[in-house]
Structures are given as C-alpha cells and as structure tokens.
Specification:
Helix content is 30%, strand content 11%. It contains 7 helices and 8 strands; from the N terminus they run αβαβαβαββαβββαα. The model has no long low-confidence stretch (mean pLDDT 86).
Length: 328
C-alpha cells in the first residue's frame, strides 16, 4: 500500500526567510539610530574664531586726529578744496577750523572741510532761483562726509576723529554721528573723540540719546525739521528728529543753539504743516536772519565766550588729550 504524501505544515517559513527578516529589522534599527544621532542631534555653537588682532601702529602719513568740518548753507561748493577752502571766505566753520589748524602740526591734526554744494533752493521762487535743492545738497554732503571718514579710517585705523558742523552742515554732522552711535556708521564709535553741532535743524533737546546743550538755559524750541516733520515738497523733505538720538555716541555730542534762531529754535509745532509752502518760506528766510548769522559773536556763557570760541576750545582740548598712536 502506497503511503500518503505528507503535507507541509502551514504557517512555517524557511530558515532563510527568518534571516532576511532579522537583517531587515536590524537595518531599520540602525537607520533610526543614525537618524537620531545625526539628523536629530542638537549641536551647540562653538566659540567664534578670533579675528585679526588690532593694529599696533599705522603709517607715518596718518594724523593722530582728523577734524571733519562741515560748513553751512552757502558756505561751500562741490569743487572747493577740502584742505584750503575758499568758496566762502567768511564761512563760520573757518573761524573754528583755522585757529585749530594754526595750533597743531599736520602730523597731529588733519583738518578736512567737506566740499559740497551747500544750497537750499526756494521751492516757491518764480522764476526758479537756480540753486540745488536741499535734498540733493544734503545728500551730497552726507555722502562726502561718510566717504572721507570711511577712507581715512581704512588707511589710518588708529586715527581719532572730531566732527563739527554748522546749520545744514550741523544736520549732516548730526546725521553721520547718529549712524555712528547706532553702530552702522563709517567709523567705530570708539574712534570719535567728540561731535559739536551748531544750529542743528534736527535739534529736539529732549528724549533719549540727546546731546549736551551748551548755553544756560538752552532754548525752549526745536529744530525746524522737527517742527515741520512730514512736510515734503519737491526737493525738500523735513525728516523730523533722529530716531534714538545719537545712541551710544550721545555723551560725546554737544549742541549749540542761539535763542531765537528759527533753524534750531523754532516754536514747537508753530510751523504748521498745513501751510507747508508758507512755513518753508519762513524757514528759508531764517537761514539769513541775524541770529543765525551771528554765532561768531553770540555768547554761550557768563564769561563772554562765543559759540565759535567755545567750539575751538572744546576741540583743542580733545586734540591735546588724544592718544599718540605709534607710526611705522
């Protein structure tokens, strides 16, 4: 009798299948572990590699101090010589820069007078007065001031700086100083010895980051650009106060404003933006008013010190006490 064939029991796999399955499970475990170890691992940042060491000396051609002088409206030109300015022989800033130039040798002090168009076209003049607009003039002055500071710092990294400006030049000097104080200017704040703005059109005299006011008491008004904030006509933009003032540079900044000078002592909110053209006309007339034109004789203290004398004395003290960087 022939034996019946034995059927293979259901549910049993060959041994090779178990081997494949085990390898597959092992591979999955390895993949998961690698995923956790590599993709899911939080890597803490390490220390920042040190940058190049600061220089210990600079070229013998570099001055110890550079003074940046920025003249006011109608006191400069785009083609003026920055080392021998003659566009306006009675420029107020010359009464500051020339005594300092005479007091210190060239290797101690370099005086650079920013050449820019320095005009303020009257938007309601008919026929047009042919001058550059305030916006274009201010833009050119700011760009030239910024460029020369950046270039000199690149060439002479140990040189320190004194910055001063009058009227439109004070607005430019103040704007550059505010950028430095905010940490995004053309030179580091540590390289600035001090800044003085005379008749600053963006003066606020209150709020954070404001300069030390020279004069007792300081005028109660504010700069014309603050009083006229938001007024914009072709070529003239009133930009208001500087956000944050002068930032970290504020302790080194000084402001001089003569009472009654509408450029820096305009009655608060008195120049009504609703009457933009009339207000701007008043502002333009203020640029030639007697108070604005007399900072060389306006007194800032009980000793009879004038605004320009104070600025010369202030700058001279900074220059005398400035470091003497080694030269190579």
């Amino acid at each position: 009798m022939t034996p019946r064939p034995t059927r293979r029991s259901r549910g049993f796999w060959p041994a090779g299948c178990f081997t494949v399955l085990a390898l597959l499970v092992l591979a999955i475990i390895v993949i998961v572990l690698l995923w956790y170890l590599l993709a899911g691992r939080l890597k803490e940042p390490g220390p920042t590699p040190p940058g190049p060491p600061p220089p210990t000396s600079q070229s013998a051609e570099c001055p110890d101090v550079m003074m940046l002088s920025i003249p006011g409206t109608w006191e400069s030109s785009s083609t003026d010589d920055p080392y021998n300015p003659h566009a306006n022989p009675i420029s107020l800033m010359l009464s500051v820069s020339e005594p300092l130039r005479a007091q210190f040798p060239d290797n101690r002090l370099e005086v650079y007078t920013v050449p820019y168009v320095a005009q303020f076209s009257n938007p309601i003049a008919f026929p047009p007065d042919g001058q550059a607009s305030y916006n274009n003039s201010r833009t050119e002055g700011t760009a030239r001031a910024t460029d020369v500071l950046a270039q000199r710092h690149k060439e002479c990294p140990l040189t320190n700086f004194v910055i001063a400006g009058f009227s439109q030049g004070a607005v430019i000097a103040g704007d550059v100083a505010a950028q430095i104080g905010a940490g995004n200017g053309p030179i580091p704040e540590a390289n600035v010895l001090g800044v003085t703005v005379i008749a600053d059109g963006r003066r606020t005299a209150s709020g954070p980051g404001q300069p030390t006011e020279i004069g007792d008491p300081p005028p109660a008004g504010e700069g014309a650009e603050v009083a006229l904030k938001g007024v914009n006509v072709p070529g003239i933009s009133m930009t208001g106060p500087r956000p944050g003032g002068f930032g970290t540079l504020a302790p080194k900044v000084y402001s001089v404003c003569a009472p009654g000078d509408m450029i820096c002592d305009a009655p608060r909110q008195a120049l009504n933006p609703a009457n933009a053209l009339g207000s701007l006309a008043a502002l333009i007339r203020s640029a030639g008013n007697p108070v604005h034109a007399l900072y060389a004789s306006n007194r800032v203290d009980s000793n009879g010190t004038t605004a320009t004398q104070w600025t010369v004395n202030w700058a001279a003290g900074l220059i005398e006490n400035a470091p003497h960087p080694p030269h190579s």
